[in-house]
């Protein structure tokens, strides 16, 4: 019987991880590390191992996890071959990055092998443990596209910047580190007074460290000149300039890991996926490497590379992960934010792979503004949410563009966090102009699958900016809720789309008294979800808070912190963990293809369809509300929603449908049943105790009915290929059992015959048919359609 989510014990592998320690790690307290073991391998390469279509005029680069001895980085230790033929070239080293410049362009459509030999040493004289080898294949053409700056910290126009922060600029592609210097990356302020500092480049990010920090309450101007070039020698089209103003204080707050993919405890992970960690704030890219971001299979380190972009770190295994295998991932306290604050403690999570790779193309599930929107605020950012986690290195100002009017490109920056990409126009949008946004097929998921086609949408601005503060419109659990399940995720729905960079573990917190609950925060559509790292305690009151650090896409913050409380069940219930319906639980009926009714039906609660339009709901006599966001019906005590209605309804429904599918997958994936094939599928006349019931044949209930007997928080999950409630069959609940805790997971047809009564939540992959006079005390959550005929449907 399932009780709590299994969590793997984190064993201390210090003897293994010691190979990743960096000289000087720990902030320089006067001591130093004395290394006696080989150093870690490189953190990242450009091109990546296995890359195809590499431009023929590019240089190669390797970023190490720590500073290397420049005398050991040369054409002897950094080599390139085509087959057995040595490719002539030169090698330079700057910061943490080595660059190989071929004497001539690569041959088109040709595979090359690059190698860093064990002769490469760090500053303590320790060599690589073994040669690092990777391959790539060229395309047919050279790269002639100018790089751009996609993201900066502080952002343009920021105020209150911490005086002890470094300044970073992230590029749309890897650039030549030899061109990123204190000549091409400068900071001035106040006025034109140059700020002394140092510049280093790693991954796709340049970092300027002011000598002695910044002055308080001062406006600074940062510039990346067009002397900065990519690895093909293309310069920025023009200087990139931005300004920001400091506050009065330093940043002393430790960063946190807000979100991971895969999630902690996730199973069935596709074997060709990369691993990501999204932070609560921008991190120092020099501290995000194979030294601080590691993956283990048992006690064996997984070979791979680490890249960092925006607020997300990506670990790319050198080869696909093994099938049906558990992995332990760690972000160590060596990871620091731009003020030098490390994580408070190592962040550790686990996941288990399935048997197959991911071959499914990602899609864009939500945009703000939506296609066809008018009157869009001129100070809005433009956001797109994907169906799954994406590779942040592929979400840039090259793959996410905005044009208008006509084909005129809009200058701006790009950042990706969670599942959402956000484009920030430089200087805002013009009034009463139609713009077109495009996400190209260059955008890839973490398995390397691209969008099947470009995603294109248009919107028209109004004449004014948005100055209205967002609000929290709904929480799950609701304020003062009791008997909340122990495995509960906590959700907040906003009145409008929010800036995903501001929805993190720093702005969405959960407390047990004065003790913080550790967890992760995800933001999709309009909904923020806090997932505790372990089950909540029984009989405990928790306080959830969304702070004023949460901002909408126009930069407006909540007017005040939003705080609510809830209390968990008093005792651990019997049966499996309940299925958390999340926002799908806000609906009595929710389907993907339609709801049809005849006769005198009465539904208590909200109903909705998505992604299909309102025309898929027939027989209800819908009356569209003046807001355009919902309809009403004499048959429904509640609201009727459809994907074709006005914003924010489409976003709310997209999240609810996703939550419904997740709930179905959860219920279907429960293992270790308490009862298998009870009554060979005919459970008529039986009394069912709490538990997980699995059937390999359809479940039939005749006029003898069936009774669920248990306590108010006990749980039943019934996994059945089909469900046939025959005419006159009555499903009853005995003792203190509640219909809300009964879950029917059915991949095939669900038939509720005439004058019968069913209790519980239907999670169906196909059609749900409810015949004349039948009653459902529960929810009908169907991935196809629901057909009604003079029924009473009431949310439990």
Please, could you describe this protein's structure?
The protein has six domains: 38-138, Immunoglobulin-like (Sandwich); 149-246, Immunoglobulin-like (Sandwich), CATH 2.60.40; 255-353, Sandwich (Immunoglobulin-like); 364-460, Immunoglobulin-like, CATH 2.60.40.1220; 472-572, Immunoglobulin-like, CATH 2.60.40; 583-794, no CATH class. The chain contains two helices and 65 strands. A seven-stranded parallel sheet has the order 47-44-64-62-60-57-54, with no helix packed on it. Strands 43-46-50-45-65-63 form a six-stranded parallel barrel.
Number of helices: 2
The overall strand count is 65
Question: How many structural domains?
Answer: 6
Overall pLDDT score:
91
- The amount of beta strand, in percent, is 35-45%
Unreliable stretches, pLDDT < 50, 5 or more residues?
A: 1-39
* Helix proportion range: under 10%
Largest sheet: 7 strands, parallel
Computed structural class: mainly beta
The gyration radius over C-alpha positions equals 28 Å
Enumerate the strands of the largest sheet in spatial order, edge to edge or round the barrel. Answer: 47-44-64-62-60-57-54
- CA-to-CA gap between the ends? 25 Å
User: What shape does the CA trace take?
Assistant: globular
Oligomeric grouping of the chains? single chain
Secondary structure elements and pairings:
Blueprint: H1 14-17, E1 44-46, E2 51-54, E3 60-63, E4 78-82, E5 85-86, E6 89-94, E7 97-102, E8 111-116, E9 132-138, E10 149-153, E11 158-161, E12 167-171, E13 185-188, E14 197-202, E15 205-210, E16 219-224, E17 240-246, E18 257-261, E19 266-269, E20 275-279, E21 293-297, E22 300-301, E23 304-309, E24 312-317, E25 326-331, E26 347-353, E27 364-368, E28 382-386, E29 400-403, E30 412-417, E31 420-425, E32 434-439, E33 455-460, E34 472-476, E35 481-484, E36 490-494, E37 508-512, E38 515-516, E39 519-524, E40 527-532, E41 541-546, E42 562-568, E43 587-591, E44 594-598, E45 602-604, E46 606-609, E47 617-618, E48 623-624, E49 631-633, E50 636-642, H2 649-668, E51 675-676, E52 687-688, E53 691-694, E54 699-701, E55 706-710, E56 716-719, E57 723-725, E58 731-735, E59 742-746, E60 750-752, E61 757-764, E62 768-770, E63 775-782, E64 785-789, E65 792-794
Parallel strand pairs: 2-9, 11-17, 19-26, 35-42, 43-46, 43-63, 44-47, 44-64, 45-50, 45-65, 46-50, 51-53, 52-55, 53-56, 54-57, 55-58, 56-59, 57-60, 59-61, 60-62, 61-63, 62-64, 63-65
Antiparallel strand pairs: 1-3, 3-7, 4-5, 4-8, 6-7, 8-9, 10-12, 12-15, 13-16, 14-15, 16-17, 18-20, 20-24, 21-22, 21-25, 23-24, 25-26, 27-28, 28-31, 29-32, 30-31, 32-33, 34-36, 36-40, 37-38, 37-41, 39-40, 41-42, 48-49, 49-50
